[in-house]
Amino acid sequence: MTKLKTFPLGGIHPDKYKITTDSPIIDAGLPEIVYIPVKQHIGSPAKILVSKGDKVKVGTLLADADGIVSADVHSSVSGEVIKVESIEGEFGYLEDMITIKVEGDDFEPSIDRSTDINREIELSKEEIIAKIREAGIVGMGGAGYPTPVKTSIPENKKVDTLILNGIECEPFLTADDRLMVEKAEQIVIGAKIINKILGIQNAIIAIDENKPHAIETLSKITKTYVGVNVQVCATKYPQGGEKQLITAITGREVPSRKLPIDVGCIVQNVGTVFAVYEAVMKNKPLFERIVTLSGDACLHPANYRVRVGTPASFLIDKSGGITEKVSKVIFGGPMMGTAAFNINAPITKITSGILLLSEELSHKTEPQDCIRCGKCVEACPMGLQPYLIGRNVRNEKFSELAACHVLDCIECGCCAYTCPVHLPLLDYCKIAKSELKKK
């Protein structure tokens, strides 16, 4: 048997809890009100174009990208703009949002709503990039980096490999898994579209071995498409990290403080690639995404197609609501996600999951003194020394943090997961990075 590809340094094998793997995507429906943030991406907030009282349709441009690293924001519903103001987001901070009262589901006429699969890529490279920009597409794996910027290659750089990230290594999350099963051909065509932008014929869809249906479906379809292939990877966390995935697929190592493009690679989440297909072939802006609603305290786990701006509480109610068993609500996955301060906060372009966790899974045990076992060092996929970073933070020796290379930390949480004395090593790493960035 061929050895499955993976990254060589560190990593862990947390319990997967992939309880929604076989749950087909369900349309979540429309809430009464949506709250659409104008910053759902890395970079500058988009410039608001609408005012209170304006009528909008599904796909109407609400806010225009302000600068190179920014992204357009579109309405996910039809109705009336009732507020344009700062509202409390998922972390408790005030964010500029456009509040729309839902009055129907009327689409902009330019959007192709047919179920036909369009296969002929007729646009030029420049026209494709313009379409992606106009659709407001950003990285949907969590980072939220504007896609047109990521796919525009500087003259002094050369890319020879496009990697589609279908790993989804976080426990509980299955949104990408179901998308690959149900929209496989559209994802492959999306890969061909990005290949055309990059001027290459080498797209590799990376899927880990715990997604047999996605592997089977995409392997069958890619046989009819030149330049797109499937690579099965071993199941290990954080295999979905860009640097870890590039090493696993190509054997190349992205140097410290460098980007994938510096080793000839571009990595795109499969959800992003599907959005590229819809933008270029269907003229559809990014106003909805697949979200996994799950957790050990969730009564009715499922994968939903959700409109951007939908309050998380709307989905939670569909799952059976906040029961006595629910101890914590997480936006994202349990390893890298964040505890929700406000469950009425909206679903955004980068919300991959909403998890309802019990006290058993969410409880933090009281930390003890470090026993110097080295488990955090063994687990770190970036080759760092988390125990040393933690010690420097606890002792406020911030001047010594640069030598620890903490800015290379990808915040995967492997160190905290493996620590037998329950030290909050990930929290220490985040504090250390914040201190260094102040300088």
Report the end-to-end length measured between terminal Cα atoms.
Answer: 51 Å
Number of strands: 17
What percent of residues adopt helix (DSSP H or I)?
A: 25-40%
**Gyration radius, to the nearest Å?**
21 Å
Unreliable stretches: none
Major sheet attributes: 6 strands, mixed
How confident overall, as mean pLDDT? Answer: 95
Physical arrangement of strands within the biggest beta sheet: 1-14-13-17-15-16
What general form does the structure show?
Answer: globular
Structural class: alpha/beta
Strand content: 15-25%
Write the element-wise H/E pattern from the N-terminal end onward. Answer: EEEEEEEEHHEHHEHEHEHEEHEEEHHHHH
List the helices and strands and how they pair.
Elements: E1 25-27, E2 33-37, E3 47-48, E4 55-56, E5 61-64, E6 73-74, E7 78-88, E8 94-104, H1 125-134, H2 147-150, E9 161-165, H3 175-182, H4 184-198, E10 203-208, H5 212-222, E11 228-233, H6 242-250, E12 265-269, H7 270-282, E13 288-294, E14 302-307, H8 312-318, E15 328-331, E16 338-339, E17 353-357, H9 359-362, H10 375-379, H11 386-394, H12 414-418, H13 425-437
Parallel strand pairs: 1-14, 9-10, 9-12, 10-11, 13-17
Antiparallel strand pairs: 2-8, 3-5, 4-7, 5-6, 7-8, 13-14, 15-16, 15-17
Helix pairs in contact: 1-4, 3-5, 4-7, 11-13
Give keywords:
439 residues; alpha/beta; 6-stranded mixed β-sheet; 4-stranded antiparallel β-sheet; 13 helices; 17 strands; 26% helix; globular
Please tell me about this protein's structure:
The chain has helices spanning about 125-135, 145-150, 175-180, 185-200, 210-220, 240-250, 270-280, 310-320, 360, 375-380, 385-395, 415-420, 425-435; strands at about 25, 35, 45-50, 55, 60-65, 75, 80-90, 95-105, 160-165, 205-210, 230-235, 265-270, 290-295, 300-305, 330, 340, 355. It is α/β, with parallel strands linked by helices and about 450 residues long. Strands 1-14-13-17-15-16 form a 6-stranded mixed beta sheet, sandwiched between helices. A 4-stranded antiparallel beta sheet has the order 2-8-7-4, with no helix packed on it. A 4-stranded parallel beta sheet has the order 11-10-9-12, sandwiched between helices. Helix 5 links the parallel strand 10 (about 205-210) and strand 11. It is globular. The mean pLDDT is about 95.
